[in-house]
Amino acid sequence: MRKQQSLRMRIALAPLRIIVPPPFPKRPQIQARRCLQVKKLRVALACSTKDGLRKEYAERFGALENDDEPPPPDFFAEGDDPATIESVAGAMRSAGHEVSILEGDSGFPAMLAKCNPDIVFNIAEGLFGDMRESFVPMTCERMGVPCTGSDPLALAICLRKSRAKEILAWRGVPVSPFRTFSPDDDIDISGLSFPLMVKPVSEGSSKGVFEDSFVEGRSEARRRIREKISKYRQPVIVEEYLPGDEYTVAVWGNGRDIEALPPVAIKFDQLPPQSKKIYSYEAKWIWDSEEKPLEIFECPAKVSAGLGKRIAATAVKACECLDIKDWCRVDIRLDREAVPNVIELNPLPGILPRPEQNSCFPKAARAAGYSYDQMINKVLSIACRRHGIA
Ligand SMILES: Nc1ncnc2c1ncn2[C@@H]1O[C@H](COP(=O)(O)OP(=O)(O)OP(=O)(O)O)[C@@H](O)[C@H]1O
Ligand SMILES: [Mg+2]
Q: I need a labelling partner for 271 at 20 to 30 A (CA). Which of 131, 211, 243, 309 fits?
């Protein structure tokens, strides 16, 4: 309470500074084009390169080389590599669109104003905070530029796994029981049944989800919670472990046209013996490499028609509950009673281009008969339809 009062006082006493942003350029030509069933679009591909993320880190904490406490090696796992960016851009160029590539960093608003595209194809994930994935669509919203994928609110909620799970639970979508812990919290995990999973609350690409995230005892859990809070500079989510089979489901389309692609099953028996049955950072990025891809996926998953329907329906309902737009990948795992539970939603799904890279959205699209280029252009056309562009 005292903390709140002093904060209010500080706000009251702070000198008033109003910064007037420059007006954004009017966009009459876009409005006109929107009515003209445009075929050839000017697309800005917004991305977060690994170099861009390192720069973002350096702006906040100084150069990486001078860092006494360097970030863990998985810290930049969400960055886009040049091959992915070129493949996404190439796919749209092959369909006749003009594509510019923009870094989704602090320079993005100015670059977007300069570029003035018909639409932004967004794959930018940023580095810090719950709003990191929202920055590009928020800027687009502010500047009146259409953007692919979910809006800033949905992206932020899905990124903070605990918020997404609260909404899903409220709407009757099964999720495993959980709790979150911030640096100053007392760690009380009573009421949760072991084993537990300890994960940074707002990350993806298995950043912070290692074999050691799976914990079976109270003191181990406390230790792991503290370690992950300090390493990843954010709260952690502690969830009951779902012991059943795991699937990931690519979903695309909007409204009545929403569609689940064939589910991908994750085959944990392909991982090294004794490893945990989780799709950890080790499994995703170390044991399964492009040079030696593991046969870790089965797509379409061999499941009974009934289970297949339940998995797809859970994924679609999760997307509807969280107001997902255009595309998303939903991670699902069966509980003790074989009920599909949602682990988390990925409204900016990984789209590594080469099949050996084992990226699940492209894999599901391939199983449904779409090449990589067709998949990217389908997402673009779904977004264009939603925005009334083409
Ligand atoms: N509650 C849970 N029960 C069982 N396994 C879990 C649970 N939470 C996470 N896992 C395992 O850890 C993996 C990674 O977790 P999660 O999907 O939350 O991480 P992520 O970094 O968001 O992944 P992504 O690469 O999909 O962005 C899951 O695919 C699953 O195998
Ligand atoms: Mg996941």
A: 309
